[in-house]
Amino acid sequence: MTETASGPARGSRTKGAKASKGLRIERIHTNPGVHPYDEVEWERRDVVMTNWRDGSINFEQRGVEFPDFWSVNAVNIVTSKYFRGAVGTPQRETGLKQLIDRIVKTYRKAGEDNNYFASPADAEIFEHELAYALLHQVFSFNSPVWFNVGTPQPQQVSACFILAVDDSMESILDWYKEEGMIFKGGSGAGLNLSRIRSSKELLSSGGNASGPVSFMRGADASAGTIKSGGATRRAAKMVILDVDHPDIENFIETKVKEEEKIRALRDAGFDMDLGGDDITSVQYQNANNSVRVNDEFMKAVESGGKFGLRARMTGDVIEEVEAKSLFRKMAEAAWACADPGIQYDDTINAWHTCPESGRINGSNPCSEYMHLDNTSCNLASLNLMKFLKDDGLGNQSFESERFAKVVELVITAMDISICFADFPTQKIGENTRAFRQLGIGYANLGALLMATGHAYDSDGGRALAGAITSLMTGTSYKRSAELAAVVGPYDGYARNAEPHQRVMKQHADANAKAVHIDDLDSPVWAAATEAWQDVIRLGAKNGFRNAQASVIAPTGTIGLAMSCDTTGLEPDLALVKFKKLVGGGSMQIVNGTVPQALRRLGYQPEQIEAIVAHIAEHGNVVDAPGLKTEHYEVFDCAMGERSISAMGHVRMMAAIQPWISGALSKTVNLPESATVEDVEEVYFEAWKMGVKALAIYRDNCKVGQPLSAKTKEKEKEKEEVAAKAEETIREAVEKVVEYRPVRKRLPKGRPGITTSFTVGGAEGYMTANSYPDDGLGEVFLKMSKQGSTLAGMMDAFSIAVSVGLQYGVPLETYVSKFTNMRFEPAGMTDDPDVRMAQSIVDYIFRRLALDFLPFETRSALGIHSAEERQRHLDTGSYEPTFEADGLDADSLAQSAPVHAEPLKAVPAPAEPAAKAAPKTAHTSAELVEMQLGISADAPLCFSCGTKMQRAGSCYICEGCGSTSGCS
After folding, report:
1. Which residue in 217, 299, 789, 882 has the fewest CB atoms around it within 10 Å?
2. In sequence order, what are the residues at sequence separation of 6 or more whose Cβ sits closer than 8 angstroms to the Cβ of residue 823?
3. Residues in domain TSCPD (predicted)?
């Protein structure tokens, strides 16, 4: 709470005291005369992080000091990611105290230098409260703060950047340079390309323009180069194109075409793993693509009307298209490869606080930060589970007052950071200092809802999430108005005072109309209402210090550093977690949120114990003893037998969006069986509900996922196997010709398989008949029109092969001779097992090998089905596994060797059902895959080789904290 020069604020530390310039800081968690460090038990730990694929050590630092209540994973991630100084040198940080001091002392000094505090005593309270909140994982700054603040290097504090590009070669080249500098610093950037002339417009010289899609290639190549040269994380970027741009169809199709290329090249044997030798031939893979649609377009979709594509220079309509047809193409592309996402331009700009300074055209890579071009945003996220008060008997409440105080503390710190922050370009620095955009948010929403007995897709769950969000943003703007009274409003406020106050009223009006559901959300709504009343009153008097206050970010690495069960606003991944143990080893435990939820729902201890045991065994709540079926939905997760529907995700986004300044980083997950119509529904309903932006992801729609690189030893083994196979085949052929062949004809009735196929656009049919006692006996090929040369040659060829088979020539001999033979027609096929063929003959014998040769024989020849290739990607082996033969993961776990050590502490209520984790699982994501018998096509981590999981629009490695581009 604060007291400003304009008078004491409600709840200030010194009631009725004389007003003074500067903030009065109230204690929240700390005690006078006692430092937060002195109130916890500290211990030394060894951090040794290995790559699960080859056992190599990725990181090692021994004897680091952390509180005893920090999880192994959080210690590992903070030590490896955030400690500064070269490992093994005296300059290296060795404990959490040094890390937190580096940050909070920098913030305190900047606050004092810029007159934020009323007195040195207030500055000290600020420092201690900030240290306590970081120490106890109550909140976390975004990663650049941990990386850079208090170090000799540039103190970049922002994770999110928006750039701009104009229709000139100078501007385009500046785009490449500015983006590269941001990538070099480990952050991401986004921009809208719609100012660039389309390929359908003329240049001043008279020639046709290249169009924005062509310039995307250069930017993509630059991002890929910086990614591969800059350690372990990819460059995160977003490219956006307005729906009325004449090149919009080309933009929509870019990634679909490249995805087809990935399929073809991988199936042809090229190394298409992320970081592989051949992946660089694929374009547009380093960016998220989004189409910016407006209300005019969406209404035309709704009515079935036409929509005009406009010239960039004049604004004239140069082409009209069917709006529904264009919308359908967007949905088809997203269904096929998850791109493009969608952004709703009119909704975004209707909530814009600074329209007099320019429109909102772009977003950061994960779509949560949306503001003016050439600006940045620093983020911080609160751990919502830290504010749930639970007496252990089912009586719960959300601590609204303490939550609001922490929000005030964090917003103050975030605004102070802009005073000393460095920026990658001069324009971004000038604009960010002028508008001071902040992005406070939260993590662990999914865990909070489950722990309080709310289904993620329920009215009660949405009401609680909305109330917390409204309180957070209302309190943030209240503090922003109080800061404006002390250190002045942002530079652009005077010009934008009217629209800024209008948006504040929109937030407040939405809060007033919100529906209250139960005893948990009602007090939070009441606190939020009071906060918004203060916002309107203080904002009219003082203005605002910040043009933006809140976003919901992915919270990838920082979520793990806070030991959160769920990231951002995502639901829980699954009910069973993979827990690392001190000293090594791991255990599989049921989420601690499950017993909390059951207590809230009224279950008795013995019932809870039985239900938790059932979940530990089966991974879900279906048929759990004593659990009411109406309570199943409380335990629905992102994956599993009872997964949350696509529209459940959209409804949660819509419930939160009215009280977020920016947007929400969220990917709406759809099952593999989802249709294009399902994607259309998500995109259309999200617009109707007032969501600002979203992306969809259909399971297994992408084949070009990052994979672990093959070792040289495995390649050598493969070559040796192939050589031995060739030798075996040669010996078999030699033995055959030593004897006089005898023709074995097929009986009148013979089993057969007829296959239709397409190779490089040429269609055909193959009928393969076999002997009743097994073994291929004849092949008939039908190609092209009867009487054509190709049809005649195929007839003659099939007769020759059939006669050879009946005289005893082994099929593997034909396969070894005719596969890889090159001639036209060649190219893509419609066979999922043989996606690329170098000729018709190549396809025919690959298909015959798959249908008639045993696994060992064709494996030696390098011929595998799509299922076997996927199994190889997931397990490192093409061979069938026990799971594939019908045994579940639990059966395997009982017989497989394990590497786990017993817990040293007394287990929590959920942990009596803990059991040793299977040897092949190294994160919760991999554990879920084993339990469900599915393979999520998430990338493998560059650093440690484990399967990553989604965090908003990005991926996060639960093992080491690496991300696919978000901070």
Report:
1. 789
2. 838, 839, 841
3. 750-850
What is the C-alpha to C-alpha distance for residues 770 and 756, in angstroms, rounded to an integer? 18
Residue 906 CB coordination number (10 Å): 6
Determine whether domain 160-357 maps to CATH 1.10.472.80.
no
Q: Which two tokens stand for residue 534?
A: 């203060």
Report d(CA 957, CA 955) in Å as an integer.
7
Confidence of residue 401 (pLDDT cuts 50, 70, 90): very high
Catalytic residues: 364, 366, 368
- Pull the structure tokens for residue 122: 């207030």
pLDDT class of 894 with cuts at 50, 70, 90? very low
* Bridge partners, 380 (sequence order): 141, 440
Three-state DSSP string of 429-485: HHHHHHHCCEEEEEECHHHHHHHCCCCCCCHHHHHHHHHHHHHHHHHHHHHHHHHHH
Contact 404, 531 (CB under 8 A): yes
The rounded percent of the chain whose pLDDT value lies above 90 is 54
DSSP, collapsed to helix, strand or coil, labels residue 531 as helix
Residue 20 Cα to chain centre, angstroms: 46
Phi, psi of 38 (to 5 degrees): -80, -5
CB-CB contact of 29 with 55 (8 Å): no
Q: Classify each residue of 555-593 as buried b or exposed e, where b means 16 or more C-beta atoms within 10 Å of its C-beta.
A: bbbbbbbbbbbbbbbbbbbbbbbbbbbbeebbbbbbbbb
Rounded CA-CA distance 445/458 in Å is: 14
Q: Which residues pair with 578 in a beta bridge?
A: 588
**Domain boundaries, given as residue ranges, for the chain:** 24-157+364-557, 160-357, 574-640+876-932, 712-863
| Residue 292: strand pairing partners | 242, 343
Q: What is the pLDDT of residue 556?
A: 82
Report whether the peptide linkage leading into residue 825 is cis, meaning its omega lies within 30 degrees of zero. Answer: yes
